[in-house]
Amino acid sequence: QVQLVESGGGLVQAGGSLRLSCAASGRTFSRYFMGWFRQAPGKEREFVAAISWSGSTTYYGDSVKGRFTISRDNAKNTVYLQMNSLKPEDTAVYYCAAGGSAMATMRRNYDYWGQGTQVTVSS
Questions:
Q1: How far is residue 82's CA from residue 43's CA, in Å, rounded to a whole number?
Q2: Are 69 and 19 in contact (CB under 8 A)?
């Protein structure tokens, strides 16, 4: 039994920045790929970013490339998502996930999920 807990969500104006954190408990996830997904009301959950256990490999969704940065601190078993130049279209519930590496951009690659944190970007 493991838990992933997201934090750092909130309300921000367009063009602003926000940093999300995801902390794992129950066991360590140093060798797991960690990912971020998001889901807006009435829409499918979409891939945002993923990072390998060492941090040497990262993936980004096309809609956030160049604006968001994923990183991790294995000593703290925590993954971060730095979000810059935020747009109203980024408004969604953001979910943290842990899993394998074969399909790092796919939802089915991940075994564990957090409950999500709300990010709202105003015009």
A1: 23
A2: no
